[in-house]
Every structure is written in structure tokens, then in C-alpha cells.
């Protein structure tokens, strides 16, 4: 039986013909810390490549200390890695003093290695000088790298620390604080470089945010379905036996009638959604069905946590 819920079949927990996978060992203690450090370093390297291949050559300052370093490189001719180190060090110290040791120490590694990787990869030739492509692929690369860093429970320092400080001192939401800091950098790019560059920077910032969400929430194509039917037992048996999926029975109450209802929650793969709808219609053509995307599914029959 694939899937997991309150209602399960007795017997094998996997589809016939598939061997049970050994359980994954959760990452804890020193192993987890080493894994987190590896993710932070990997994410920082991906960000450095995106910076040098797409953002810097096309002068796209899409927020953060990296954006400031691009402006400084164009206006003052300063090496971007130097600018990032100079700005990140006082920001890290301020974060350590105002936000506490635990919050700041995890950003130390990213703060150090990101400018280092930017410096090491600075001579790699850019694959494009088209600013739109630079904004799109640069945003994807930075978002992918940041998402990996966040998966490692770290950060790359920079204006994210400043946004946290503003959030703590003013009570503004983090989204507002991040928008203020990144928006200021993009505005400076529009003034000191060209207004067109600020527009490209906004595209890059948007793509970055979407890519971070994708990495953090997962790329799962699974679907979650909620089914309301009067044919409770036939529906349950059809899903368990014909779909070979687990399900969960939720007790609900009709908002208009006040009648008690049973809602089945079923998680299926994308390629199984059409089959589920066919089975539901065959059992109860009047059933009410809601199917939506599930960004990430953890558990037996899907991705194991750990």
C-alpha cells in the first residue's frame, strides 16, 4: 500500500513487485552540522557562478550586498568581492550584537565563502550579454543557491542581516524589511547606472524569490485530493483497492446545512490524478472533489524525511 493515513490496508506497505526501501537514517548531531556546512558551501558556489556569469556582466544589481558590489564595480571600479567583504563584516558584527550569537553564527560561513567564490570565479567568461537573459538566468542561479543555503539552515549574510535588524527595531514584517533594503539597492542602480537596469533587476529579484520557494518547498508533482461523497464505504474501498493508495478520513460539517460529512484526503502522484477522478466518478458521479498541488510530500510511499 502506498501512501499513509488513518485508514490503511493490512499487508505490504508497498505496491506489489516493488521492494521495500531501507529506512533513511535522520541527520542529527555532528553529521547534520557537516551536511549543513556542505549545503551552505555548495549554495554559495552556485550563487557565485550566477553572479559572475549573468548578473555582473549585464550590470544587474538585483538587491543585497551583491547588488551594491555591482554598482561599486561600475561606478568606482572596485572588485565586487572586496566590496562584499567590507560590507559583510560590519553587518555580521552588528547582527551578532543585536540579534544574538545563535542567529548570526550560522551566517558566518556563507558570509566568508560567497565573496571568496566570487573572487575565484571572476574570470569565467559570460555566456550572454543580453540583460534579459542575464536577469532570468542570474535570478534562477541566485535563487537556487540561496535555497540550498537555506536548506542548510544558513545564510549568506549581507542585507538579510540588516533586514532582520530593522525588523527587530521597528516591528515591521520581514517581507517589508527585505523589500526596503533590496528596493533601495535597485533604486540606486536605476539612478547611478541606468533606469533600464533597475527594471531588469526587478525581474531578477522576482525570479530569485520564486526559485527560493521552489527549492525550499520542493519540486514535487504530487497532488492532494479532498473528496466529499455520500458513498462513504464504496469510495473508501475503491481508493484503497483500485488506487492502491492510503487515505485519511476527516470529520467535517456542512457550512450551510450543518450536517456531518466525511471528507477523504488522498495524496497521489501527478500521473495518478486522472485515474483517481475516473474512479471517484464511477463510484459517485455526484461526489465533490478538490485537487490541488502539494509542494512537498514526506512519508511512506513518497519521500522519506531525513
From TrEMBL:
Keywords: Cell membrane, Membrane, Transmembrane, Transmembrane helix. It comes from the Bacteria. It is a multi-pass membrane protein. It is found in: Cell membrane. InterPro entries: DUF2179, N-reg_PII/ATP_PRibTrfase_C, UPF0750_membrane, YitT. Residues 245-299 form the DUF2179 domain. Pfam families: DUF2179, YitT_membrane. The chain crosses the membrane at residues 34-55, 60-76, 82-99, 104-120, 132-150, 171-193. This is Uncharacterized membrane-anchored protein YitT (DUF2179 family).
Amino acid at each position: 500500500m502506498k501512501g499513509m493515513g488513518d485508514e490503511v490496508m493490512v499487508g505490504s506497505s508497498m505496491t506489489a513487485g516493488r521492494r521495500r526501501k531501507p529506512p533513511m537514517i535522520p541527520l542529527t548531531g555532528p553529521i547534520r552540522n557537516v551536511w549543513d556546512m556542505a549545503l551552505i558551501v555548495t549554495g554559495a558556489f552556485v550563487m557565485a557562478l550566477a553572479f559572475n556569469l549573468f548578473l555582473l556582466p549585464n550590470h544587474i544589481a538585483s538587491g543585497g550586498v551583491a547588488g551594491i558590489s555591482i554598482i561599486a564595480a561600475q561606478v568606482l571600479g572596485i572588485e565586487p568581492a572586496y566590496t562584499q567583504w567590507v560590507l559583510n563584516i560590519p553587518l555580521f558584527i552588528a547582527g551578532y550584537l543585536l540579534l544574538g550569537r545563535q542567529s548570526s553564527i550560522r551566517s558566518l560561513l556563507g558570509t566568508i565563502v560567497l565573496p571568496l567564490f566570487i573572487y575565484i570565479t571572476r574570470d569565467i567568461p559570460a555566456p550572454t550579454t543580453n540583460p534579459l537573459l542575464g536577469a532570468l538566468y542570474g535570478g534562477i542561479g541566485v535563487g537556487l543557491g540561496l535555497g540550498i543555503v537555506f536548506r542548510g539552515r544558513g545564510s549568506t549574510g549581507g542585507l538579510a542581516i540588516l533586514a532582520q535588524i530593522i525588523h527587530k527595531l521597528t516591528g515591521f514584517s520581514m517581507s517589508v524589511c527585505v523589500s526596503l533594503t533590496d528596493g533601495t539597492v535597485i533604486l540606486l542602480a536605476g539612478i547611478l547606472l541606468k533606469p533600464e537596469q533597475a527594471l531588469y533587476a526587478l525581474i531578477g529579484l522576482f525570479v530569485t524569490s520564486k526559485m527560493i520557494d521552489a527549492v525550499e518547498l520542493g519540486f514535487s508533482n504530487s497532488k492532494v485530493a479532498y473528496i466529499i461523497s455520500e458513498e462513504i464505504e464504496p469510495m473508501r474501498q475503491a481508493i484503497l483497492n483500485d488506487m492502491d493508495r492510503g487515505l485519511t478520513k476527516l470529520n467535517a460539517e456542512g457550512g450551510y446545512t450543518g450536517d456531518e460529512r466525511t471528507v477523504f484526503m488522498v495524496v497521489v502522484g501527478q500521473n495518478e490524478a486522472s485515474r483517481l477522478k475516473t474512479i471517484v466518478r464511477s463510484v459517485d458521479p455526484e461526489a465533490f472533489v478538490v485537487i490541488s498541488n502539494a509542494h512537498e510530500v514526506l512519508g511512506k510511499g513518497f519521500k522519506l524525511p531525513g
